Amino acid sequence: MSQALGESQMLASEPLSIxxxxxxxxxxxxxxxxxxxxSSSGSKMAVVKASHGYSFSVSKxxxxxxxxxxxxxVVDFMAFVRSGSSLTKEKLSMAYTRYHLSGVPAAVxxxxxxxxxxxxxxxxxxxVKVHDMTxxxxxxxxxxxxxYPSSHRSCxxxxxxxxxxxxxxxxxxxxxxxxNLFQNTPNYTIKALGSSxxxxxxxxxxxxxxxxxxxxxxxxxxGFNGGRVTDVxxxxxxxx
Length: 240
Ligand SMILES: [Zn+2]
What we know:
Bound molecules: zinc ion
Number of strands: 12
């Protein structure tokens, strides 16, 4: 690991409130490794603390990357179409995306779709190519049934926290199917099938103005997430 990554992790370990904007977060020019981050100087990475969520606003034409910094870490991914500074009712839809892609995750050059059957993202790079479009986000009910304490964090709560400033609550999030990046669970298997390595990433181009929300999945049972939940990175300002 580079010195820069160590610095970012140190900063990211500081307490983070739930409604911070991108500018409030840990923003550092990072060069974790040459294959991980874009070489353009304008890109920034926010480190999303393990088991927490984050949201960021993008405009049509923007590119960003979701980076698995340490490997085998699932990232629940949602997006909500924005009109100016307000959300519309349109959002990223796994049902529409599955329909267009015949159930197979989008390849580079293919699209993700919204509830109004409109492309919202184009996949521009993917070093993993194994993701899940079927599972719901882990949530308080999921953990309660497994006997976890009520204090255990969940993806639905993480994204609800990250989207609270946009007026969404946890029930809105539960009604949204996530794209589970780096989650290798074909045909609803939920085995310990981590497929991503440290530094792997997915890059997308926004085709609409929207707010993207991610959750660093807190589920560590059965070896999921490699049995150890770790930080993930969000790189914005990626140039073509
Ligand atoms: Zn989760």
